[in-house]
Amino acid sequence: MYAVDARQVITSLSASKSPFIIEGAPNVVLETIKRAEDDPKKKLTRVILRIYEAYGGHASATLRIASHLTVDKACICNLLEERSSSGLELVKDVATGDTLISLPVRGFQILTVRVNISNVVKKSCVAPLFSGI
């Protein structure tokens, strides 16, 4: 049996950066990241992000998607993951290469954002911890 220090694992996981980050509005929370129900699980990956406003105020948040994910398109959909908007504007951050999506949010609103990703460069943050096992 091998002993793994749980503190080292937790520190490593918390230090790793999420590929999806909400910026510019501390009252807006990214609550769920999951595969879409109709995801083909082949070349294209469809991801659902559930975002909500927590305090009853309006906000203008920005969804930042890491540069190692190639975003083809994004749109707002309903809780059943049916598209309800034509699409969201994708803006590239010149400095980092990240994709930025502006999200106006009303008080207590729940937003479901559907993101189509065509190219995923796989990164592992936990593998080095267990390389000796």
Radius of gyration: 17 Å
Q: Which structural class best describes the helix and strand composition? A: mainly beta
Percent helix, as a range, is under 10%
Number of beta strands: 8
Give the SSE string.
Answer: HEEEEEEEE
Kindly state the mean pLDDT as a whole number? 82
**Proportion of β residues?**
35-45%
Shape field:
globular
The span between the termini is 9 Å
Instruction: Tell me the CATH topology.
Output: Immunoglobulin-like
Structure description:
The chain has one domain: Immunoglobulin-like. The chain is 8% helix and 43% strand. The protein has one helix at residues 6-15, and strands spanning 20-23, 28-35, 45-53, 59-65, 69-77, 91-92, 99-105, 110-120. A 4-stranded antiparallel β-sheet has the order 1-4-7-6, with no helix packed on it. The chain starts with 5 loop residues before the first helix and ends in a 13-residue tail after the last strand. The model is unreliable at 4-15 and 125-133 (pLDDT under 50).
Please name the defining characteristics of this protein.
single chain, 133 residues, mainly beta, Immunoglobulin-like, four-stranded antiparallel sheet, 1 helix, 8 strands, globular, disordered C terminus
